């Protein structure tokens, strides 16, 4: 069934609140661990923020790279590079010299929702309190939202195009969609693609909290992220990165690469409805899913699993459920990984795409945590335990403020 | 402050900012050609040197400090 125009996934990398790599993250998802904890920093109390919890990285990124390299990079750039290094090695590609891939045929697409917020805010503090001299000359390269993509591109000497889609919480998935298009157009042979985010600091938390988009279940962090549950009260902010190495199938075959599966099709759409609220019927989301299945040549009946975006906001979860029912049906086993990972914003789609692919490989769908009483409007088979199921095709949803919708359709190796 | 002391302190700043081993930071070395320090790192080094030694290093002077020795001489004669 596979053709030379196919796009295959050969490498995975991640650093998340559940673990510092793909294996520990996947184990955390399958075993139903929560990555949500109390924020230890003093500022949550100092600013009297209504939100005192977050899904913080399991492993400090700066401790995993040379000190001088770390100080030149925003945390968001650090996590991107850490995940990319893992994915590249996982694809069996040597680092030095990178002889297997022609640099001009290597692309990078790394999305982020916000980019270097920590740098922007800390350097603004420096300017305010200590004056111009204390503003780092690295401020701009550290805060620019294309910074994560640019650092990954530099590190692997990608000369075939480095891109950074910014579409809020759909950014990571959109990066994978863009990689798929580059490979299908035969612009490059290999793309490192994914998403990165690291902005757990006062202003983003304050801003999201003022939107009333976040859970304030501060007294029970592990129970705070409750997608599809009747008592959900918003998302939990997380940080991390996910990366895939994607290749043209013919290229992967020629170099004898191990293949996880295919990114068989992608769908993108926009709501044209509201700057933050999703369309209540999920029509835009449904169009993205339908488009992903159409480009993949997959019948909705053959989709056995949906890895949902489901952030645990009141409107979003129900709109997505409606979109899944209208585009796929109610037969697929659904999971909501943000119940465990928190919401990694621009990294979410990439990390969850990895989980979608591993669900196919292992024939198991991770549990949705904290789903005590499903919202009756959802009407889907949302699993609350690790469910064994033979899968041939699965879909990953990602949506972002601004009305961005991305769906990715994966099939097995 | 002796030139030796300035060199020692400057080498510590170069290591902090650019990760170059202090032992490599000797008077004859060019910041760009020998120590592989880029222009952004040079700005950071200059700001830290200003704080450390209590000197002013304007941009047009910074451009003339090609070697570590140039910087030591400039700092010694301007403190």
**Class computed from helices, strands and strand pairing of chain B:** mainly alpha
Between the first and last Cα atoms of chain A, what is the distance in angstroms? 11 Å
Task: Say what the CATH topology of the largest domain in chain A is.
Answer: Peroxisomal Thiolase, Chain A, domain 1
The count of strands of chain A amounts to: 15
Mean pLDDT of chain B: 95
CATH class membership of the largest domain in chain A:
Alpha Beta
- Radius of gyration of chain B in whole Å, from Cα? 11 Å
The helix tally of chain B amounts to 4
Which percent bin holds the helix content of chain A?
Answer: 25-40%
Average pLDDT over all residues of chain A: 96
Query: What general outline of chain A do the C-alpha atoms trace?
Result: globular
Q: Which CATH architecture of chain B is right?
A: Orthogonal Bundle
Please tally the β strands of chain B and state the result. 0
Short description:
The complex is a heterodimer of chains A (413) and B (79). Chain A is an alpha/beta fold and 413 residues long.
Can you characterise this structure?
The complex is a heterodimer of chains A (413) and B (79). With 413 residues, chain A is an alpha/beta fold. Chain A folds into two domains: 7-254, Thiolase/Chalcone synthase (Peroxisomal Thiolase, Chain A, domain 1), CATH 3.40.47.10; 270-412, Peroxisomal Thiolase, Chain A, domain 1 (3-Layer(aba) Sandwich), CATH 3.40.47. Chain A has helices at 22-30, 43-46, 67-71, 75-90, 117-130, 139-143, 147-155, 171-184, 202-210, 249-254, 283-296, 314-327, 338-341, 348-362, and strands spanning 7-15, 37-38, 53-54, 106-111, 162-163, 190-197, 240-248, 261-270, 303-307, 333-335, 364-365, 381-382, 387-388, 393-400, 404-412. An eleven-stranded mixed β-sheet of chain A has the order 5-4-6-7-1-8-15-14-9-10-12, with helices on both faces. In chain A, 60% of the residues are buried. Chain B has 79 residues and is an all-alpha fold. Chain B has a single domain (3-78), classed as Non-ribosomal Peptide Synthetase Peptidyl Carrier Protein, Chain A (Orthogonal Bundle). In chain B, α1 packs across α2 (39-53) and α1 crosses α4. The mean pLDDT of chain B is 95. Chain A binds chain B through residues 66-69, 133-134, 136-138, 141, and chain B through 17-19, 40-41, 43-44, 47, 50.
């Amino acid at each position: 069934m596979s053709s030379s125009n196919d796009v295959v996934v050969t490498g995975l990398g991640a650093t998340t609140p559940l673990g510092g790599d793909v294996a520990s993250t996947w184990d955390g998802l399958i075993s139903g661990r929560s990555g949500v904890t109390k924020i230890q920093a003093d500022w949550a109390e100092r600013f009297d923020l209504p939100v005192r919890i977050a899904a913080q990285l399991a492993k400090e990124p700066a401790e995993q790279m040379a000190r001088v390299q770390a100080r030149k990079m925003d945390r968001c750039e650090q996590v991107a590079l850490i995940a990319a290094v893992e994915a590249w090695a996982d694809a069996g590609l040597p680092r030095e010299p990178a002889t297997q891939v022609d640099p001009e045929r290597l692309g990078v697409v790394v999305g982020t929702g916000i980019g270097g917020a920590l740098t922007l805010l800390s350097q603004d503090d420096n300017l305010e309190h200590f004056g111009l001299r204390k503003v780092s000359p690295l401020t701009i390269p550290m805060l620019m939202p294309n910074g994560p993509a640019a650092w990954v591109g530099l590190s692997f000497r990608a000369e075939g195009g480095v891109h950074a889609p910014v579409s809020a919480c759909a950014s990571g998935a959109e990066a994978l969609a863009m990689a798929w298009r580059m490979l299908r157009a035969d612009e490059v042979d290999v793309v490192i693609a994914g998403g990165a985010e690291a902005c757990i600091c006062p202003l983003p938390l304050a801003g999201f909290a003022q939107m009333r988009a976040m859970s304030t279940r501060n007294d029970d962090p592990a129970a705070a992220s409750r997608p599809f549950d009747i008592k959900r009260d918003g998302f939990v902010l997380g940080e991390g990165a996910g990366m895939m190495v994607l290749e043209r199938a013919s290229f992967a075959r020629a170099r004898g690469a191990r293949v996880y599966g295919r990114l068989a099709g992608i769908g993108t759409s926009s709501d044209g409805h509201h700057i933050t609220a999703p369309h209540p019927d999920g029509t835009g989301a449904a169009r993205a899913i339908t488009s992903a299945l159409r480009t993949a040549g997959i019948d909705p009946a053959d989709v056995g699993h949906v890895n949902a975006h489901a952030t645990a906001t009141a409107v979003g979860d129900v709109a997505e459920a409606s979109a899944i029912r209208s585009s796929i049906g109610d037969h697929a086993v659904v999971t909501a990984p943000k119940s465990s990972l928190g919401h990694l914003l621009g990294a979410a789609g990439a990390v969850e795409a990895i989980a979608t692919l591993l669900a196919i490989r292992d024939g198991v769908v991770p549990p949705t945590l904290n789903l005590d009483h499903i919202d009756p409007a959802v009407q889907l088979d949302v699993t609350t335990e690790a469910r064994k199921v033979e899968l041939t095709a699965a879909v990953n949803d990602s949506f972002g403020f601004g009305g961005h919708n991305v769906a990715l359709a994966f099939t097995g190796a | 402050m002796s030139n030796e002391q300035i060199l020692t302190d400057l080498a510590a700043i170069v290591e902090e900012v650019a990760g170059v081993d202090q032992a490599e930071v000797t008077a004859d070395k060019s910041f760009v050609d020998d120590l592989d320090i880029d222009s952004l790192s040079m700005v950071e080094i200059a700001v830290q040197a200003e704080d450390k030694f209590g000197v002013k290093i304007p941009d047009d002077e910074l451009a003339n400090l090609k070697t570590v020795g140039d910087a030591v001489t400039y700092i010694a004669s301007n403190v």
